[in-house]
């Protein structure tokens, strides 16, 4: 199987340029939102809270808040990237170009992942102004963030192919991802929950993501890191498989 | 008779695109029956020619282009270009094909220069600013290179679409209705551009529903209607079959019979001798000349008339006739 590197890089560069064109909207708003969380839950309320598992409350919520922003931003960035050409009709060019699944994913999803990583870096830097935190396993943390950004950018790509209107684009990040992240242990450890809610919470996939990332920060979490990583990798593979099927059947792309 | 083998190659003309038995059926939605957009289409395009695909709206022109360019998945049939089979070598094939779509489908916030350079990269070609400048200059877009597409007029946007399609130096270019909704000046311009492309050796396939456009531009013309190719022939031959001039002379005095001097022309006496009707011509202006000659003859013969009503057959009329002819011969 051949791969058209020039084409893939062209799409990647073009998507990043589109991001720069709207850099204010793309970066300022998620960073501001995260800052507000840090101010309210970290600096203002955090001081009156007990430590969670030996970690200050302000520091405890850093991984969850990072995920809260990254999940919705990765998803919506990638979904807009592919939905806009479908909406304007300029997708004809992509369809008539010598590119297949691989080039499209490297270009569109790669760009969305890059944006998420930039965003993560800015949020983690911003967090240092409000709370003291350390990262126990920085390399593992980086790869975990990369993994989550990739998986949810792929999900966003699928969403951008599925959506037939702007409401549907907004629906998944706003109505599914954000609530699940809030209930997925961003602000608490699920050990704090009473049964049966503790068991119910384990059915929320975001719990594993938050736990996984929290482990890379503080070396301990509700769920063990292997389970969390395994689930995320499995989800990523599932998304790639779905996208491959979509391209081969031409669903929502080719008549 | 239909042959499943490619058209014989006599050594002088080289085939660049070969379509065999191409069928596209859209599944029915709800209670609507399935729609056959293309029915068993065979079409061979010669290298270096300008081929016009002529047909009314909904004839299947855009579907045919879409099948070759990758927007439409054929239900059955085969497509070969540059001797390659699309099923296996679609990457190599598509890298050498350009498409100018009918709709203004562009990212309107993009700048002209970037948009065209992007197209080149997307098709796998190395960045080449000199080549992009050349393309922009040829299409009189160089002065607008830093404008956002939304700031351009409709005609200028269409030129950008052409520039994007040419940015990767394709050998085969599809133009879907290049002059639909375009003013006279730009249409002239477009024709000149296509002429230049021919000189550079680019093979051009354009679709149109204007007979004049096919007549002006094409070397060969294919007529398509309701998903079927009705005929393919050299332009001159096809214009002879397509064209039909109708004229009616309303006479001031009814005639009992036609004068002998009119026997050479395709005229009849109608409406109880009050109307002389002309039906003929070959679409290349002969009909109009003959009607003018007829008018002069009538004056010489001292036959007075009060009105002349002349018209060229519409494409629809011609299709109806072609379909009838096809039905009669098969």
UniProtKB/TrEMBL annotation, chain A:
Alphabetic keyword roster: Cell membrane, Membrane, Transmembrane, Transmembrane helix, Transport
GO cellular component term, pick one: ATP-binding cassette (ABC) transporter complex
Bilayer-spanning residue ranges: 23-45, 57-84, 104-130, 142-163, 169-188, 225-247
Record's subcellular location: Cell inner membrane; Membrane
Record's keyword annotation contains Protease: no
Membrane topology: Multi-pass membrane protein
Ranges where the ABC transmembrane type-2 domain occurs: 21-250
Keyword Transmembrane helix belongs to the record: yes
Entries under InterPro entries matching the protein: ABC-2_transport_permease (IPR052522), ABC2_TM (IPR013525), ABC2_TM_bact-type (IPR047817), ABC_2_transport (IPR000412)
Pfam family, one: ABC2_membrane
GO molecular function terms noted in the UniProt entry: ABC-type transporter activity
Family: Belongs to the ABC-2 integral membrane protein family.
Descriptive protein name: Transport permease protein
Source species: Croceicoccus mobilis
């Amino acid at each position: 199987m051949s791969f058209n590197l020039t084409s893939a890089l062209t799409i990647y560069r073009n998507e990043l340029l589109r991001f720069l064109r709207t850099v204010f909207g793309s970066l300022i708003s998620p960073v501001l939102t995260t800052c507000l969380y840090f101010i309210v839950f970290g600096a203002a309320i955090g001081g009156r809270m007990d430590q969670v598992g030996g970690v200050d409350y302000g520091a405890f919520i850093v991984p969850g808040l990072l995920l809260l922003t990254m999940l919705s931003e990765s998803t919506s960035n990638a979904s807009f990237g592919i939905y806009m050409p479908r909406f304007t009709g300029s997708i004809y060019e992509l369809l008539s170009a010598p590119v297949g699944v691989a080039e499209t994913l490297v270009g569109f999803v790669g760009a969305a992942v890059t944006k998420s990583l930039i965003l993560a870096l800015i949020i983690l830097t911003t967090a240092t102004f409000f709370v003291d935190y350390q990262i126990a396993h920085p390399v593992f943390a980086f790869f975990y963030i990369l993994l989550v950004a990739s998986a949810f950018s792929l999900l966003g790509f699928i969403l951008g192919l599925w959506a037939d209107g702007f409401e549907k684009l907004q629906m998944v990040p706003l109505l599914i991802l954000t609530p699940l992240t809030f209930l997925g242990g961003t602000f608490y450890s699920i050990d704090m929950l009473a049964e049966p809610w503790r068991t119910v919470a384990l059915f929320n996939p975001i719990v594993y993501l938050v736990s996984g990332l929290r482990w890379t920060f503080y070396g301990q979490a509700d769920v063990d890191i292997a389970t969390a990583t395994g689930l995320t990798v499995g989800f990523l593979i599932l998304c790639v498989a779905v996208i491959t099927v979509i391209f081969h059947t031409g669903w929502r792309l080719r008549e | 008779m239909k042959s499943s083998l490619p058209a014989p190659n006599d050594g002088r003309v080289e085939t660049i695109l070969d379509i065999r038995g191409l069928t596209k059926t859209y599944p029915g939605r709800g209670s609507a029956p399935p729609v056959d957009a293309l029915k068993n289409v065979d079409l061979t395009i010669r290298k270096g020619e300008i081929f016009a695909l002529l047909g009314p709206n909904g004839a299947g022109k855009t579907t045919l282009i879409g099948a070759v360019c990758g927007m439409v998945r054929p239900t059955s049939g085969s497509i070969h270009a540059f001797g390659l089979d699309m099923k296996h070598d679609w990457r190599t094939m598509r890298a050498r094909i350009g498409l100018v779509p009918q709709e203004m489908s562009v990212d309107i916030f993009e700048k002209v220069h970037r948009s065209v350079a992007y197209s080149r990269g997307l098709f796998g070609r190395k960045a080449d600013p000199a080549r992009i400048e050349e393309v922009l200059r040829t299409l009189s877009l160089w002065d607008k290179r830093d404008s956002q597409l939304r700031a351009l007029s409709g005609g200028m946007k269409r030129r950008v679409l052409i520039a994007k399609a040419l940015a990767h130096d394709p050998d085969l270019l599809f133009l879907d209705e290049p002059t639909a909704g375009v003013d006279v000046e730009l249409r002239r311009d477009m024709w000149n551009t296509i002429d230049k492309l021919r000189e550079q050796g680019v093979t051009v396939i354009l679709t149109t529903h204007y007979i004049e456009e096919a007549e002006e531009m094409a070397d060969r013309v294919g007529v398509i209607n309701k998903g079927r190719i009705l005929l393919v022939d050299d332009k001159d031959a096809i214009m002879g079959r397509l064209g039909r001039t109708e004229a009616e002379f309303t006479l001031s005095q009814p005639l009992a019979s036609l004068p002998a001097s009119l026997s050479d022309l395709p005229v009849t006496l109608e409406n109880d001798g009050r109307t002389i009707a002309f039906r003929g011509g070959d679409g290349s202006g002969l009909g109009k000349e003959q009607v003018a000659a007829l008018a002069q003859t009538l004056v010489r013969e001292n036959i007075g008339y009060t009105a002349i009503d002349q018209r060229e057959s519409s494409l629809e009329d011609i299709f109806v006739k072609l379909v009838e002819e096809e039905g009669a011969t098969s």
